[in-house]
Write a structure and sequence with these properties.
By secondary structure, this protein is α/β, with parallel strands linked by helices. It contains 10 helices and 11 strands. It has a single domain (about 20-250), classed as Acetylglutamate kinase-like (Carbamate kinase, 3-Layer(aba) Sandwich). It has helices at about 5-10, 30-35, 45-55, 75-80, 85-110, 130-140, 155-170, 200-205, 215-225, 235-240, and strands at about 25-30, 60-65, 115-120, 125-130, 145, 170-175, 185, 195, 200, 225-230, 250.
């Protein structure tokens, strides 16, 4: 696959910081917004994430987010219950719009301008996804929240994160995980002998079947040499990764 040209390759940023990142895409699962609840959004948890994002813009001024919808509806679970795959996936996309709107509201209450761009038509509540408009928002210091995945069934929000990160020219994808500090060679919640992997390549993650992102997303990142940082969604971790610290697992293709 031909490497996708990124805006940062051609647009000079004279005030760019010398360490860390200037533009990142944060991948949040719906479960990250659920906190200790069984369903929906835990507002204090979402507010804590919003405050951290508000604080780190001094070091990384351009932040995009792709949010999942698993706290409301998971497409694959719908399929297992007998729903048609395409219908279940569309329902899951709509769940991500709910999370995006809630996150936008919470961010703006923290004094951060935010815009929701949806891959599904939702003109009354969100902008349509337009690449140049998204980049313009980022350059103006607004957080852009990409909702509804890619807008197509059979593609996960992991793939949407990889695609949007490449489209807007992100320096890296930050994958914040619930209760897991990075990538292991097994499930640490069920296998006490699972080993932590601080660094690996995209190809290794694919060949070893590690549950980091789906294969489509990993392949897209590998082909375009887009680095992925996988870490626990704990207080301060997003800022530490943005500052260039080694936190969690780094997946890259040299």
């Amino acid at each position: 696959m031909r490497r996708i040209a990124r805006p940062r390759d051609t647009v000079a940023h004279p005030d760019s910081i010398s360490t860390g990142f200037r533009r990142v895409l944060l991948k949040l699962s719906g479960e990250a917004l659920m906190g200790s609840r069984d369903f929906g959004i835990d507002v204090p948890v979402a507010r804590s994430i919003a405050r951290e994002l508000a604080g780190l813009r001094e070091h990384c001024p351009e932040i995009a987010i792709v949010v999942g919808g698993g706290n409301f509806f998971r497409g694959l679970e719908g399929v297992s219950d007998g729903m048609e795959r395409a219908t279940a996936d569309y329902a899951g996309m709509l769940a991500t719009v709910l999370n995006a709107l809630a996150l936008q509201d919470i961010l703006e209450k923290e004094g951060v301008e935010a815009r929701v761009q949806s891959a599904l038509a939702s003109e009354e509540v969100a902008e349509p996804f337009v690449r140049r408009k998204a980049i313009d928002h980022l350059e103006k210091g607004r957080i852009v929240i990409f909702a509804a995945g890619t807008g197509n069934p059979y593609f996960t929000t992991d793939t949407a994160a990889a695609l949007r990160a490449l489209e807007v020219g992100a320096d890296a994808i930050l994958m914040a995980k619930n209760g897991v500090e990075g990538v292991y060679d097994g499930d640490p919640r069920t296998n006490p002998d699972a080993s932590f992997l601080p660094r690996l390549t995209h190809l290794e993650a694919i060949e070893r079947g590690l549950k980091v992102m789906d294969t489509t997303a990993l392949s897209l990142c590998m082909d375009n040499k887009l680095t992925i940082h996988v870490f626990e969604l704990a207080e301060g971790n997003i800022a530490r990764v943005v500052a260039g610290e080694q936190v969690g697992t780094v997946i890259e293709t040299p």
